[in-house]
Structure formats: structure tokens, C-alpha cells
Design brief:
Elements (H helix, E strand, L loop, with lengths): L2 H18 L4 E11 L2 E10 L18 H18 L7 E7 L9 H5 L5 E6 L4 E9 L3 E4 L6 E2 L3 E6 L12
Parallel strand pairs: 2-3
Antiparallel strand pairs: 1-2, 4-5, 4-8, 5-6, 6-7
């Protein structure tokens, strides 16, 4: 079985296992790579957005906790072992939440990052760094823009690291 088909099968089995586990976590992406005699299976997790009201485009979404990732890792490992997709060949399993260095490419990526500082590159080549205040299925709103930005006009977007935030409530 090729890597793409293996990743699809693993996605299906791990998604089912996480759903039964009662966690507020979903599989965001699965990759399977050859790594010498072993295979490397990476499962990226994200907060489930299905419990948010459809019209709520502005409330912040809590990042996954270490406890949630730990519990999800246990469920994912059992699901991968149980589906026998990897066969007898050894593999290494890595389970983690998506990092801030990952490009935002889908509407749900943006929705999970409302309230964060983003660097956004547009199709016309211009870029801006601004706080994401709202994210819907087709457009997003940045703090420094007076109009919504269609996702179709976003070439690349990435969360920016902030060590101090002047308007943070915990300051």
C-alpha cells in the first residue's frame, strides 16, 4: 500500500478512536514516510471545532493541553496497531498538535487561531502582520484591515511568535 493510501486509512481509524475516546480532538493531518527500514507515521492533532456555533467566528479556541495530546497519543497508537495497516514492518509513531510554524491553509486552521498575530501574504504579493479577529469559511478579518479578506486572496499565512502582548489579560 502506498503512503497516501496508508495515511488515509490511518486517518479513518484514528479519527474513529478519538471520537470514541471522548476527547475534544480531531486528526488534522497524517503523513507516512519511508525512513530507512522503518516508516515514520506522523499524526497531527487539533481542537475539534464542531461544538462551536456556526455563526461564532470570533471566540478564541484553546490550544490542546499536554494531557489531551498524551491521551490522544494512547488512542492513536492503539488504533494504528489495531488496524494492521503497517503490517509486520516496524514504524515510528509521532503524535503532536500542530505547531505555530505550520502554514495556515484551510478555514479551520484560521478559525483555531483567532486572536493570534498572523503574517499574511496576499496573491498580489503584499504582506501584512496583524491580529486575526474573525475567521469564517470564506474570509477572515484582520485587526488592521477595514474590510474582510477573502481566503482566495491569501497565498500564505503563519502564526507569529509573541513573547509579550501589550493587551494580554494575564500581564
Amino acid at each position: 500500500m502506498d503512503a497516501r493510501a496508508a495515511a488515509a486509512t490511518i486517518t479513518q481509524h484514528t479519527s474513529e478512536a478519538l471520537g470514541r475516546g471522548g476527547l475534544d480532538v480531531v486528526v488534522d493531518e497524517v503523513t507516512v514516510q519511508e525512513a530507512g527500514r522503518r516508516r515514520l507515521v506522523r499524526v497531527f492533532l487539533a481542537r475539534d471545532l464542531s461544538s462551536l456555533p456556526a455563526d461564532d467566528l470570533t471566540s478564541p479556541v484553546e490550544p490542546l493541553s499536554l494531557d489531551e495530546v498524551s491521551e490522544a497519543t494512547r488512542l492513536v497508537s492503539a488504533a494504528v496497531d489495531g488496524c494492521d495497516i503497517m503490517g509486520e514492518r516496524p514504524y515510528t509513531l509521532e503524535v503532536s498538535s500542530t505547531g505555530i510554524d505550520r502554514a495556515l491553509t484551510r478555514p479551520e486552521h484560521f478559525r483555531r487561531n483567532v486572536g493570534r498575530l498572523l503574517k499574511v501574504v496576499r496573491t498580489d504579493g503584499t504582506s501584512t502582520t496583524s491580529r486575526l479577529t474573525s475567521a469564517g469559511p470564506e474570509q477572515l478579518q484582520l485587526e488592521d484591515l477595514d474590510h474582510p479578506l477573502p481566503l482566495s486572496e491569501v497565498t500564505r499565512a503563519q502564526v507569529q511568535v509573541e513573547f509579550t502582548r501589550t493587551d494580554a489579560k494575564d500581564a
